[in-house]
Structure formats: C-alpha cells, structure tokens
Design a protein that fits this description.
The protein has about 90 residues and is mainly α. The protein is built from 4 helices and no strands. The longest helix is centred in the N-terminal third of the chain and has 8 residues. The radius of gyration is 15 Å and the shape is globular.
C-alpha cells in the first residue's frame, strides 16, 4: 500500500529484527533475506529442539562468506545490548 508508510516496511523490519534460526533452518536463505548483520546464534539446548553440542551449528555457516561467521556467532548480538533511543 504505497503512501501508507513513511518507510518501506521491509526496510523497517530488516532494521528492527534479528533472527535466531533453528538448526534445521536454511541459514543461507535467511542471510540472503535479512543480511548477515541481522542473524544471531542461539541455542535451546538442552531442549529437544536444540543440538546436543550447540556450537556444532557453526558447520552450517561454512556455506557463507568467512567474514559472516564471527558476526553471526557473537558479533551481532552485541548490538542488542546497546541502549538506543526509540
């Protein structure tokens, strides 16, 4: 609905949301949609939907550019701890 929003809603979503994929999700597709600066590592271990060794998930990141891995495995989450005005 052009004109209803001051900014493209997709741009707003990408700026405002971080995604923590489940281990079975296609992380390459998520990075393609959101950018590697909006994907973060997390784990539900020891719950059933988590991996027994949560950091084994890093093998899924081998399909991505090398510089994306440290961002996803910890660098991006630092932005969530910064206080910013609304």
């Amino acid at each position: 609905m052009p004109g209803y929003f001051s900014e493209d809603p997709v741009v707003t979503f990408r700026r405002s949301v971080w995604i923590n994929p489940f281990w079975e999700d296609d992380v390459t597709e998520i990075v393609d949609l959101m950018g590697d600066d909006r994907v973060i590592f997390g784990s539900d271990w020891p719950h059933i939907e988590g991996l027994p060794e949560p950091t084994d998930w890093v093998t899924e990141l081998q399909k991505l550019p090398l510089e994306s891995v440290p961002k996803i495995m910890g660098g991006n989450v630092s932005q969530l701890n910064e206080r910013t005005p609304a």
